[in-house]
């Protein structure tokens, strides 16, 4: 004889059987963390034409920069400092975050070679475009020897060297030009800047100091502060 208790037990057993066969809900993929973007790399070799051996303790600095704006300091994307144990060409590798790259901008590789005392000996003076605008992620770059007190020989500047003084909004800046660079005497320090590529005029830059000159006018930028109206005072 079928009693009410047996009926309840049968219903419970059926519910358990149905629940055991249910398909678990699919995981919510929308909440999953996005995959990290792998860094990309610009590679190449740095060399120079002179048959001069690198001195002991030479330092090669290679940078990847955003050079889209001709009237402002370039933006550093990546850099590598090399203490070579061989002669040129010196291979380099610059890993960079692709999230920092804008397809509409221009990017270039630059390099300098200094001796153990920090004196600039070679620098790039032409544009080596990479990454965007049809350029590859590889650049073999040729550096130019810097003539003057910061050259490999340490010789004094030639008689053809030019020295100008510019008035820059309340203070004077003395600029001594050499082949491939300029030495600026600022109110608080003296800096040597290698010449870099410019769409017009002559542009010199190192770290946080930028100096651009055309005719008797110049633009100076130091530590992010810009002095756009420097005027030539005199030449000697």
From TrEMBL:
Q: Where is the C-type lysozyme inhibitor domain?
A: 166-225
Q: Coiled-coil ranges per the record?
A: none
Which UniProt keywords are present, listed alphabetically? Lipoprotein, Membrane, Palmitate, Signal
The record ties this protein, via InterPro entries, to:
Lipoprotein_YbaY-like, MliC, MliC_sf, Pilotin
Q: Tell me if Signal is a UniProt keyword of this record.
A: yes
The record ties this protein, via SUPFAM superfamilies, to: YdhA-like
Among Pfam families, the record links this protein to:
MliC (PF09864), YscW (PF09619)
Q: Which domain of life is it from?
A: Bacteria
Q: What is this protein called?
A: C-type lysozyme inhibitor domain-containing protein
Supply the source organism's classification. Bacteria, Pseudomonadati, Pseudomonadota, Betaproteobacteria, Burkholderiales
